[in-house]
């Protein structure tokens, strides 16, 4: 019993002093309250902008610091968005009317969007290869390809009117349906 209390006490004492990058975000998502919010490769304004979120875009949060949300993007990489007054935290069950978080009910439409995203991934690989051949520097090529994946798929999701946070759900649906 004393070991359990000692471990619990240590956990309670150490919990608040964990570095920001190790603390989980208290919410599940963030929604952009204004258009053209920069999505960056790092948690500072000098980091590369990989795309711009539109007003109403919703992203999955994977962590946060005092000034930045860490969000999951299409490539699986963590990207960063500022914790400004125009970026709102929310839980999935706290969505306001007009902020849809559902895939299309039409299987044909969902499949079409999925195949568009697959083409977007292929396009990112081709463009990265044109800029930086993988044989020259595989690590830099992979990094560039992921940046292009995030940029291109964000544009596609805007065109289709689908929330970026639903990408993983779309991929899971495609696997389940065998597309």
Could you give the topology of this structure?
Elements: H1 2-14, E1 29-32, E2 37-40, E3 49-53, E4 58-64, E5 68-72, E6 78-82, E7 87-90, H2 107-131, H3 138-160, H4 167-177
Antiparallel strand pairs: 1-4, 1-7, 2-3, 4-5, 5-6
Helix pairs in contact: 2-3
Keywords:
disordered N terminus, globular, SH3 type barrels, 179 residues, 40% helix, two-stranded antiparallel ribbon, alpha+beta
Verbal overview:
The chain is α+β, with helices and mostly antiparallel strands. It has helices spanning 2-14, 107-131, 138-160, 167-177, and strands spanning 29-32, 37-40, 49-53, 58-64, 68-72, 78-82, 87-90. The strands form two sheets. It has a five-stranded antiparallel beta sheet, with no helix packed on it. Helix 2 (107-131) packs antiparallel against helix 3 (138-160). The chain is globular, with a radius of gyration of 19 Å.
Kindly summarize this structure in a few lines.
The protein is of the alpha+beta class and 179 residues long. It is 40% helix and 19% strand.
